[in-house]
Each structure stands twice: as C-alpha cells, then as structure tokens.
UniProtKB/TrEMBL annotation:
GO MF annotation terms: metal ion binding; oxidoreductase activity; quinol-cytochrome-c reductase activity
Cellular location(s): Membrane
Note on cofactor: Binds 2 heme groups non-covalently.
Any Pfam family: Cytochrom_B_C
The name this protein goes by in its record: Cytochrome b
InterPro entries according to UniProt: Cyt_b/b6_C (IPR005798), Cyt_b/b6_C_sf (IPR036150), Cyt_b/b6_N (IPR005797), Cytb/b6-like_sf (IPR027387), Cytochrome_b (IPR030689), Cytochrome_b_N_euk/bac (IPR048259), Di-haem_cyt_TM (IPR016174)
TM segment ranges: 41-67, 87-109, 125-146, 152-171, 192-214, 253-278, 315-332, 338-355, 362-381, 393-414, 421-443
Listed cofactors: heme; heme b
GO cellular component terms given for this protein: respiratory chain complex III
Length: 461
C-alpha cells in the first residue's frame, strides 16, 4: 500500500483535533469510508431510521416539557399539548407518526438484510446489534404506549403486563414488579415514563453506536453479496467502493426528501391512519371499570400478538406431535451423524414433554418472544453458499415472498377480534413463520445457485 501524506489541520479545527479526533472520525466514517458503488433503493432505510430517531428524540423533549406522568392529569396534559400549547398538535402528531414510521423503516431495513444476506460472515455482530436495537425499539414503544393514559393505552398495558404472570414460579411477582402495583396504576405510569424517557433511549443510542462502529469495521454489504475489500487498488482503496461522503450523503438526501413527503402527508392529513397509528379508544380517558370490546396492540406489534393468541392448548398438542415426528425423522436421517443422531432427538422429545408441563399461556409468551429472538440466529441458520437473493434458486425467492406475505397476514389478524377462522389462520401462519427458520439449515443449501461475480455489478443511473 502506498503511503499517504498526513495533512494536519490548523486553526480552531486543528486545536480541536489535537484534543479530540474529530477530523479522524469524519474521515473514518464519512469521507474515507468506502461503500459499495451499487447501493440501491433498499439502502435508504438505514439512514431513514437515524432520521426518525432524531425526530423522536427532539419531539419527545418538547412533549416532556408539558406532559405530566400522573394518573390523574396525564390524559388532560396530552389534551393541553394538543389544544393549548402553540404548535403542540404538530409536535404530538410528529411523535405519534414517527413511532409508526420508525417501525416501517426498521422492518424494511431488516428485510433488506435478509434478502441480501447482510447477516452473513463477517457481519454477524452487526446483525445481532440490529436485532437488539429492534428489541429495544419494541420495549420503547411499549413503555410509551401507556403514557397518553387513554383507554387502549391502559388496557393494552394491562393485557401485556399480565402475560408475564404466565412465567412459571416467578410470574405473579414479576408482573407486580413491572406494574409497581397489583393493577396498572399511577405507579405503573411513572415507571413506564422513566423507562421510555431515560433508560431505554440510553441503551438504544448505545446499541446504535455499536451497530454503526461494527458495520464500518467490516464494511457494508451490497446487493451482490461481494466483499469489496478483497479487490483493492494500489492505494489500498476498494476498486468497487466510493467514499460515503459526498456520494451516499447526497444519495440519501433523495430518500430523506421522499420520506419526509410521505411523513408530512400522514401527519397533516391522516395522523390516525384509520385507527392504526392512533386508535379511537385512545382519545377516551383511561377507565379501569370499562373494558373496550376489543383490545389489540398497535399495528407493529400485531404479527407477534397473533402468534401469542395462536398458541392455544390444542396448538401445543400439534407442536408436541411435530417435535416427536421431527425427532424420529432426525434419528433415522442419513444426514444426522455421530452423537447428534441422539442429541437432537433427545432435545426435541424434552421440548415435547415441556410443552405439556407448562400451560399454553406460557408457551404463547415464549413463542411471541422467541420469534423475535430467533432473528438473531440467522447467521448460523442460513447455510446457503451465496449471500444475496440474486444468486439463489427461484424457489428460494418464492419462500421469502411467502414469508413476507405470511408476516403481513399475521399483522392483519392481530388487529381483528378473535374468531375460530382467524385463530386457525393465525395458527397456520405461525407454523409457516417457525418452519421458515427451523428448516432454514436444510432448505437454504438446496437448489441450483447462480455463479456470484468476482466484482459488483453496477449500472450508472
């Protein structure tokens, strides 16, 4: 690698650089951070997630200036913000719209990672940090959901917190500790406020910093799944890389402009999005004596809520049968060798026994949480010889399409009142979701794969 002359900064910037590595950080993460030159539409969503985070922090600060975390006046303080604070309604709708749009961009960001294999070596830690960020976002949204102190806030929190009572041995004590009382009350509101405003944001920002540092250490993935660091020029720069700044900062401005148009359209013309972003029941003060006819979480939780509701006693019997049949199949399979021919069937039989030891409510909580945590194991579940969906067999693309449609169906079911037909549909959809990951080590390596190019494919536009 040819040596490069180090240019020292002068003046005020030089004074700062001698005490804090500002110029060095800008170079490492912006002007001298080389990203693949074939980024496409899917690569807008990482920067958009950062934009929404900034929106949520800034609007949250202004809301906290007027909000009162007191069970007697919390709802009234939100109404005060909406009606009396200058432009308070804008700040409140920015925050509520931002909460939903945060999950929109994060879901699309994670989908891109799945399609292009961004969780594969050497980016396993980047992906794990990303899944941890997603879990933190869910916690942040849950704690914030109670704060308006409306009917759906109150009863939604009541239902979710009660789920922790299903944990064996410590469930009742755990749910009481989370609430701070035996029912959702002023104590619950205060501790949820503390978590939403201080604790979770601190953890979230730390994880985002770790996510970006880990990403810039190993380099960004691209639609071809080709490692650009393997092809360098005489100066040690990737042949298929371009500096993140100014190329991708300008590129991302286009995504930001388009996003803000959609964001503003929702915020000004449809802030409730037909009850999906803000439910009608949440414009009614919380009343512990009046239960809404249908309690459901916000749309971004509903796929996992559907899986919770799908886990009935009959469903656990079906899972027991599946575990036993799968154990028998692994025992007689020629692909299972050595000690694993015994270990895996024993584990599955043990799971089958546990499924009947604990009640369905507990396993519903396990399924709901496990389906999120399962995402963190993708780097080791995917055994495909190629990273990107571009070079996988056509039926792999069909499986990913089925997975996405299935996830949307689960989300829609979660917004509806339960019925026998919807419960059966959600059970089938839950099995499809679980099967996609459980059988990934098998199906991901099957089929005829296309040859991956040595360098990225790029068409100027």
């Amino acid at each position: 690698m040819a040596s490069e002359k180090v240019v020292e900064t002068t003046g005020l910037l030089g004074w700062v650089d001698r005490r804090f590595p500002m110029t060095k950080m800008v170079k490492e993460h912006m002007t001298e951070y080389y990203a693949p030159k074939n980024f496409n539409f899917w690569y807008f969503f990482g920067s958009l997630a950062m934009l929404v985070l900034v929106i949520q922090i800034l609007t949250g600060i202004f809301l906290v200036m007027h909000y009162k975390p007191d069970g007697n006046v919390a709802f009234a303080s939100v109404e005060y913000i909406m009606r009396e604070v200058p432009f308070g309604w804008v700040i409140r709708y920015m925050h509520s719209t931002g909460a939903s749009m945060f999950f929109v961009v994060v879901y699309l960001h994670m989908l891109r990672g799945m399609l292009y294999g961004s969780y594969r070596k050497p980016r396993e830690l980047v992906w794990i940090f990303g899944v941890a960020i997603f879990l933190c976002l869910m916690a942040e949204a849950f704690f914030g959901y109670l704060l308006p102190w409306g009917q759906m806030s109150y009863w939604g929190a009541q239902v979710i917190v009660n789920l922790f009572a299903a944990v064996p041995f410590v469930g009742e004590a755990l749910s009481t500790w989370i609430r701070g009382d035996f029912v959702v009350s002023d104590a619950t509101l205060n501790r949820f406020f503390a978590f939403h405003v201080i604790a979770i944001p601190l953890v979230l920002i730390g994880l985002i910093v770790a996510h970006i540092i880990a990403l810039h250490e190993v380099g960004s993935n691209n639609p071809d799944g080709v490692e650009i660091k393997e092809k360098l020029d005489a100066n040690g720069r990737p042949l298929d890389g371009i500096p993140f700044h100014p190329y991708y900062t300008v590129h991302d401005i286009l995504g930001v402009a388009g996003f803000l148009l959609v964001f503003a359209a929702i915020m000004f013309f449809a802030p409730t999005m037909g009850g999906y972003f803000l439910e009608a029941n949440n414009f009614i003060p919380a009343d512990p004596y009046v239960t809404p006819p249908h309690i459901a979480p916000v749309w971004y939780f509903t796929p996992f809520y559907s899986m919770l509701r799908a886990t009935t006693d009959e469903f656990t019997w079906a899972l027991v049968a599946f575990c036993i049949l799968f154990a028998i199949g692994l025992f007689f399979s020629k692909n299972t060798r050595g000690i694993w021919k015994i270990v895996w069937p024993v584990i599955l039989i043990a799971v089958a026994v546990l499924l009947r030891v604990f009640d369905a409510k507990f396993w519903g909580v396990v399924v709901m949480g496990g389906t999120v945590v399962m995402l963190g194991f993708l780097p080791w579940l995917d055994k495909s010889p190629v990273k990107s969906i571009r070079y996988r067999p056509g039926w792999h693309k069909l499986l990913y399409a089925i997975f996405m449609i299935n996830f949307i169906i689960l989300g829609i079911i979660g917004t509806k009142a339960p019925s026998d037909l919807l419960n059966l549909t959600s059970q089938v959809a839950t099995v499809i979701y679980l099967a996609f990951f459980f059988f990934m080590p098998i199906w991901s390596r099957l089929g005829t794969f296309k040859e991956v190019p040595e360098r990225v494919t790029y068409k100027p536009h």
